[in-house]
Amino acid sequence: RLTVLGSVNLDIVARADRLPVAGETVTGAELSRFPGGKGANQALAARRLGADVCLCARVGNDAAADEALALLRVDGVDLSHCISLADCPTGVALVVVDAGGENQIVVAPGANRRFAAESLKLPQAEALLCQLEVPMAVIEEAAAQQKAGLFVLNAAPVAPISPAVLRRVDVLIMNEIEAQALDGQLDSFQGLKALTLGAKGAMLMKGDKVIARATPPKVQVVDSTGAGDAFCAALTIALMSSVEYQEALDFACKVGARATTRHGAQPGMPHRNDLD
Ligand code: ADP
Protein backbone atom coordinates (compact mmCIF):
# COMPACT_ATOMS: atom_id res chain seq x y z
CA ARG A 1 0.00 0.00 0.00
CA LEU A 2 1.22 3.48 -0.97
CA THR A 3 0.19 6.87 0.39
CA VAL A 4 0.53 9.82 -1.97
CA LEU A 5 0.43 13.17 -0.16
CA GLY A 6 -0.01 16.24 -2.33
CA SER A 7 -2.08 18.57 -4.44
CA VAL A 8 -5.32 18.27 -6.36
CA ASN A 9 -6.00 20.83 -9.09
CA LEU A 10 -8.39 21.35 -11.94
CA ASP A 11 -6.41 22.38 -15.04
CA ILE A 12 -8.38 24.77 -17.25
CA VAL A 13 -6.61 24.97 -20.58
CA ALA A 14 -7.18 27.44 -23.42
CA ARG A 15 -5.52 26.62 -26.77
CA ALA A 16 -4.93 29.92 -28.55
CA ASP A 17 -3.01 30.97 -31.67
CA ARG A 18 -0.61 32.88 -29.47
CA LEU A 19 -0.02 33.86 -25.84
CA PRO A 20 -1.30 37.31 -24.79
CA VAL A 21 1.07 40.05 -23.62
CA ALA A 22 0.20 42.06 -20.50
CA GLY A 23 -3.08 43.92 -20.95
CA GLU A 24 -3.96 42.12 -24.18
CA THR A 25 -7.00 39.94 -24.95
CA VAL A 26 -6.50 37.04 -27.35
CA THR A 27 -9.78 35.54 -28.55
CA GLY A 28 -10.73 32.44 -30.57
CA ALA A 29 -9.26 29.91 -28.11
CA GLU A 30 -10.54 26.34 -27.52
CA LEU A 31 -11.21 25.34 -23.91
CA SER A 32 -10.52 21.99 -22.20
CA ARG A 33 -10.62 20.96 -18.55
CA PHE A 34 -8.39 18.24 -17.10
CA PRO A 35 -8.01 16.86 -13.59
CA GLY A 36 -4.47 17.70 -12.41
CA GLY A 37 -2.20 18.59 -9.51
CA LYS A 38 1.03 16.67 -8.95
CA GLY A 39 -0.35 14.69 -6.00
CA ALA A 40 -3.43 13.54 -7.91
CA ASN A 41 -1.42 12.79 -11.06
CA GLN A 42 1.09 10.65 -9.16
CA ALA A 43 -1.66 8.83 -7.23
CA LEU A 44 -3.47 7.97 -10.45
CA ALA A 45 -0.27 6.85 -12.16
CA ALA A 46 0.59 4.54 -9.26
CA ARG A 47 -2.94 3.11 -9.16
CA ARG A 48 -2.94 2.40 -12.90
CA LEU A 49 0.35 0.54 -12.44
CA GLY A 50 -1.45 -1.75 -10.01
CA ALA A 51 -0.67 -0.32 -6.55
CA ASP A 52 -3.17 0.02 -3.72
CA VAL A 53 -3.07 3.84 -3.37
CA CYS A 54 -4.48 6.31 -0.85
CA LEU A 55 -4.35 10.03 -1.79
CA CYS A 56 -4.04 12.42 1.14
CA ALA A 57 -5.11 15.91 -0.01
CA ARG A 58 -7.38 18.91 0.46
CA VAL A 59 -10.02 20.12 -1.99
CA GLY A 60 -12.63 22.90 -1.83
CA ASN A 61 -16.37 22.53 -1.36
CA ASP A 62 -17.19 23.30 -4.98
CA ALA A 63 -18.03 21.55 -8.25
CA ALA A 64 -14.38 21.73 -9.34
CA ALA A 65 -13.52 19.19 -6.61
CA ASP A 66 -15.71 16.48 -8.17
CA GLU A 67 -14.31 17.20 -11.59
CA ALA A 68 -10.72 17.14 -10.28
CA LEU A 69 -11.23 13.78 -8.52
CA ALA A 70 -13.25 12.09 -11.27
CA LEU A 71 -10.53 9.92 -12.86
CA LEU A 72 -9.11 8.93 -9.45
CA ARG A 73 -12.59 7.66 -8.54
CA VAL A 74 -12.93 5.67 -11.77
CA ASP A 75 -9.61 3.91 -11.22
CA GLY A 76 -10.22 3.20 -7.53
CA VAL A 77 -7.77 5.46 -5.69
CA ASP A 78 -8.77 5.57 -2.01
CA LEU A 79 -10.08 9.13 -1.48
CA SER A 80 -11.05 8.75 2.19
CA HIS A 81 -8.19 11.13 3.12
CA CYS A 82 -9.11 13.74 0.48
CA ILE A 83 -10.85 16.20 2.74
CA SER A 84 -13.12 18.97 1.52
CA LEU A 85 -12.55 22.37 3.22
CA ALA A 86 -15.45 24.76 3.83
CA ASP A 87 -15.40 28.21 2.20
CA CYS A 88 -12.41 27.44 0.05
CA PRO A 89 -11.99 26.84 -3.68
CA THR A 90 -10.37 23.71 -5.14
CA GLY A 91 -6.91 24.40 -6.59
CA VAL A 92 -7.03 25.58 -10.20
CA ALA A 93 -4.30 25.94 -12.83
CA LEU A 94 -5.14 28.37 -15.63
CA VAL A 95 -3.13 27.35 -18.67
CA VAL A 96 -2.77 29.02 -22.05
CA VAL A 97 -1.07 27.00 -24.79
CA ASP A 98 -0.12 28.52 -28.15
CA ALA A 99 0.01 26.83 -31.55
CA GLY A 100 3.67 25.91 -31.03
CA GLY A 101 3.00 24.23 -27.65
CA GLU A 102 4.53 27.10 -25.59
CA ASN A 103 2.51 27.74 -22.44
CA GLN A 104 1.76 30.24 -19.69
CA ILE A 105 0.39 28.98 -16.38
CA VAL A 106 -1.10 30.69 -13.34
CA VAL A 107 -1.93 28.48 -10.36
CA ALA A 108 -4.49 29.45 -7.71
CA PRO A 109 -3.65 26.81 -5.05
CA GLY A 110 -6.89 27.26 -3.05
CA ALA A 111 -7.40 24.28 -0.73
CA ASN A 112 -3.87 22.95 -1.37
CA ARG A 113 -2.45 26.03 0.37
CA ARG A 114 -5.01 25.76 3.18
CA PHE A 115 -3.82 22.22 4.02
CA ALA A 116 -3.09 22.55 7.76
CA ALA A 117 -0.23 20.43 9.11
CA GLU A 118 -2.14 19.93 12.41
CA SER A 119 -4.98 18.30 10.49
CA LEU A 120 -2.77 15.62 8.89
CA LYS A 121 -3.53 12.01 9.79
CA LEU A 122 -1.34 9.99 7.49
CA PRO A 123 -2.81 6.56 6.71
CA GLN A 124 -0.55 3.59 7.52
CA ALA A 125 1.35 2.45 4.43
CA GLU A 126 4.64 0.82 3.42
CA ALA A 127 5.64 3.88 1.41
CA LEU A 128 4.95 7.60 1.13
CA LEU A 129 5.31 9.74 -2.00
CA CYS A 130 5.17 13.57 -1.73
CA GLN A 131 5.79 16.63 -3.89
CA LEU A 132 6.09 20.32 -2.97
CA GLU A 133 2.68 21.64 -4.10
CA VAL A 134 1.37 21.68 -0.49
CA PRO A 135 2.89 23.68 2.42
CA MET A 136 6.32 22.50 3.66
CA ALA A 137 4.85 22.22 7.20
CA VAL A 138 2.57 19.44 5.91
CA ILE A 139 5.54 17.55 4.45
CA GLU A 140 7.42 18.01 7.75
CA GLU A 141 4.48 16.58 9.68
CA ALA A 142 4.26 13.68 7.22
CA ALA A 143 7.98 12.96 7.65
CA ALA A 144 7.42 12.84 11.41
CA GLN A 145 4.39 10.53 11.12
CA GLN A 146 5.90 8.12 8.54
CA LYS A 147 8.48 6.70 10.95
CA ALA A 148 9.26 3.57 8.95
CA GLY A 149 9.07 2.59 5.30
CA LEU A 150 10.14 4.19 2.07
CA PHE A 151 9.81 8.00 1.80
CA VAL A 152 10.09 9.43 -1.71
CA LEU A 153 10.04 13.19 -2.31
CA ASN A 154 9.66 14.80 -5.73
CA ALA A 155 11.19 18.30 -5.39
CA ALA A 156 8.60 19.91 -7.67
CA PRO A 157 7.70 22.72 -7.96
CA VAL A 158 11.15 23.45 -6.61
CA ALA A 159 11.46 25.16 -3.21
CA PRO A 160 14.00 25.01 -0.36
CA ILE A 161 13.49 21.71 1.48
CA SER A 162 13.31 21.71 5.27
CA PRO A 163 16.35 19.98 6.87
CA ALA A 164 14.06 17.76 8.96
CA VAL A 165 12.42 16.49 5.78
CA LEU A 166 15.76 15.93 4.02
CA ARG A 167 16.99 13.82 6.94
CA ARG A 168 14.01 11.48 6.50
CA VAL A 169 13.87 11.27 2.69
CA ASP A 170 15.09 7.99 1.17
CA VAL A 171 14.77 9.02 -2.49
CA LEU A 172 14.71 12.58 -3.85
CA ILE A 173 13.45 12.93 -7.45
CA MET A 174 14.37 16.05 -9.45
CA ASN A 175 14.49 17.18 -13.07
CA GLU A 176 17.53 19.12 -14.30
CA ILE A 177 16.11 22.54 -13.44
CA GLU A 178 15.13 21.44 -9.94
CA ALA A 179 18.53 19.84 -9.37
CA GLN A 180 20.24 23.08 -10.39
CA ALA A 181 18.04 25.13 -8.04
CA LEU A 182 18.81 22.78 -5.11
CA ASP A 183 22.53 22.69 -5.86
CA GLY A 184 24.47 23.36 -2.64
CA GLN A 185 21.50 22.44 -0.41
CA LEU A 186 21.98 18.69 -0.72
CA ASP A 187 25.58 18.33 0.54
CA SER A 188 24.53 16.50 3.70
CA PHE A 189 21.75 14.51 2.00
CA GLN A 190 22.30 10.78 2.58
CA GLY A 191 19.57 9.27 0.39
CA LEU A 192 19.33 8.36 -3.26
CA LYS A 193 18.89 11.04 -5.91
CA ALA A 194 16.91 10.31 -9.08
CA LEU A 195 17.61 12.85 -11.80
CA THR A 196 15.26 12.95 -14.82
CA LEU A 197 16.62 14.21 -18.14
CA GLY A 198 13.55 14.37 -20.42
CA ALA A 199 14.04 12.40 -23.65
CA LYS A 200 17.57 11.50 -22.46
CA GLY A 201 16.12 9.39 -19.63
CA ALA A 202 17.27 9.41 -16.03
CA MET A 203 20.02 8.52 -13.60
CA LEU A 204 20.16 7.34 -10.03
CA MET A 205 22.90 8.74 -7.80
CA LYS A 206 24.26 8.22 -4.30
CA GLY A 207 26.22 11.38 -3.43
CA ASP A 208 28.21 12.10 -6.62
CA LYS A 209 28.32 8.47 -7.69
CA VAL A 210 26.05 7.31 -10.53
CA ILE A 211 24.59 3.91 -9.63
CA ALA A 212 22.21 3.43 -12.57
CA ARG A 213 21.41 5.09 -15.89
CA ALA A 214 18.43 4.46 -18.17
CA THR A 215 17.23 5.67 -21.57
CA PRO A 216 13.52 5.68 -22.40
CA PRO A 217 12.13 3.95 -25.48
CA LYS A 218 11.67 6.24 -28.53
CA VAL A 219 8.11 7.55 -28.54
CA GLN A 220 5.89 9.89 -30.57
CA VAL A 221 5.49 12.75 -28.09
CA VAL A 222 1.98 14.27 -28.02
CA ASP A 223 2.02 16.05 -24.64
CA SER A 224 4.80 15.76 -22.09
CA THR A 225 2.77 17.09 -19.11
CA GLY A 226 2.64 14.37 -16.52
CA ALA A 227 5.79 12.55 -17.69
CA GLY A 228 7.63 13.53 -14.51
CA ASP A 229 4.63 12.49 -12.39
CA ALA A 230 4.43 9.11 -14.12
CA PHE A 231 8.17 8.61 -13.54
CA CYS A 232 7.84 9.37 -9.79
CA ALA A 233 4.96 6.95 -9.31
CA ALA A 234 6.68 4.18 -11.27
CA LEU A 235 10.03 4.53 -9.50
CA THR A 236 8.33 4.47 -6.10
CA ILE A 237 6.36 1.32 -6.91
CA ALA A 238 9.42 -0.42 -8.32
CA LEU A 239 11.49 0.41 -5.22
CA MET A 240 8.64 -0.83 -2.98
CA SER A 241 8.86 -4.21 -4.68
CA SER A 242 12.62 -4.32 -3.95
CA VAL A 243 13.80 -4.87 -7.52
CA GLU A 244 17.38 -3.90 -8.45
CA TYR A 245 18.03 -0.17 -8.95
CA GLN A 246 18.69 -0.65 -12.66
CA GLU A 247 15.42 -2.47 -13.22
CA ALA A 248 13.51 0.16 -11.19
CA LEU A 249 14.99 3.01 -13.23
CA ASP A 250 14.32 1.28 -16.57
CA PHE A 251 10.68 0.78 -15.55
CA ALA A 252 10.26 4.42 -14.45
CA CYS A 253 11.75 5.70 -17.73
CA LYS A 254 9.46 3.49 -19.77
CA VAL A 255 6.37 4.66 -17.85
CA GLY A 256 7.47 8.33 -18.16
CA ALA A 257 7.95 7.95 -21.91
CA ARG A 258 4.59 6.24 -22.32
CA ALA A 259 2.85 9.13 -20.49
CA THR A 260 3.99 11.58 -23.21
CA THR A 261 2.09 9.78 -25.97
CA ARG A 262 -1.41 11.06 -25.04
CA HIS A 263 -3.02 14.44 -24.31
CA GLY A 264 -3.49 15.58 -20.69
CA ALA A 265 -1.51 14.47 -17.66
CA GLN A 266 -4.08 12.11 -16.14
CA PRO A 267 -5.69 10.65 -19.27
CA GLY A 268 -2.16 9.86 -20.49
CA MET A 269 -1.09 7.78 -17.48
CA PRO A 270 -0.48 4.24 -18.72
CA HIS A 271 -2.06 1.11 -17.25
CA ARG A 272 0.34 -1.73 -16.52
CA ASN A 273 -0.91 -3.77 -19.48
CA ASP A 274 -0.32 -0.81 -21.89
CA LEU A 275 3.43 -1.05 -21.34
CA ASP A 276 4.38 -3.99 -23.53
P1 ADP B 1 9.60 16.75 -15.87
O1 ADP B 1 8.36 16.58 -16.68
O2 ADP B 1 9.38 16.64 -14.40
O3 ADP B 1 10.46 17.91 -16.26
P2 ADP B 1 11.29 15.04 -17.49
O4 ADP B 1 10.97 15.91 -18.66
O5 ADP B 1 12.71 14.87 -17.12
O6 ADP B 1 10.47 15.44 -16.19
O7 ADP B 1 10.65 13.60 -17.83
C1 ADP B 1 10.52 12.58 -16.89
C2 ADP B 1 10.71 11.24 -17.57
O8 ADP B 1 9.74 11.07 -18.60
C3 ADP B 1 12.06 11.08 -18.27
O9 ADP B 1 13.02 10.56 -17.37
C4 ADP B 1 11.71 10.09 -19.38
O10 ADP B 1 11.69 8.77 -18.89
C5 ADP B 1 10.29 10.46 -19.76
N1 ADP B 1 10.27 11.43 -20.88
C6 ADP B 1 10.07 12.77 -20.83
N2 ADP B 1 10.14 13.34 -22.06
C7 ADP B 1 10.37 12.31 -22.93
C8 ADP B 1 10.55 12.20 -24.36
N3 ADP B 1 10.50 13.29 -25.14
N4 ADP B 1 10.78 10.98 -24.88
C9 ADP B 1 10.84 9.89 -24.10
N5 ADP B 1 10.69 9.92 -22.76
C10 ADP B 1 10.46 11.11 -22.17
Automatic annotation (TrEMBL):
GO MF terms, alphabetically ordered: ATP binding; metal ion binding; ribokinase activity
Protein name per its UniProtKB record: Ribokinase
Residue ranges of domain Carbohydrate kinase PfkB in the record: 2-271
Positions that bind substrate: 9-11, 37-41, 133, 229
Compartment annotation: Cytoplasm
Species whose genome carries this gene: Iodidimonas gelatinilytica
Quaternary data: Homodimer.
Function: Catalyzes the phosphorylation of ribose at O-5 in a reaction requiring ATP and magnesium. The resulting D-ribose-5-phosphate can then be used either for sythesis of nucleotides, histidine, and tryptophan, or as a component of the pentose phosphate pathway.
UniProt xrefs under PROSITE patterns: PFKB_KINASES_2 (PS00584)
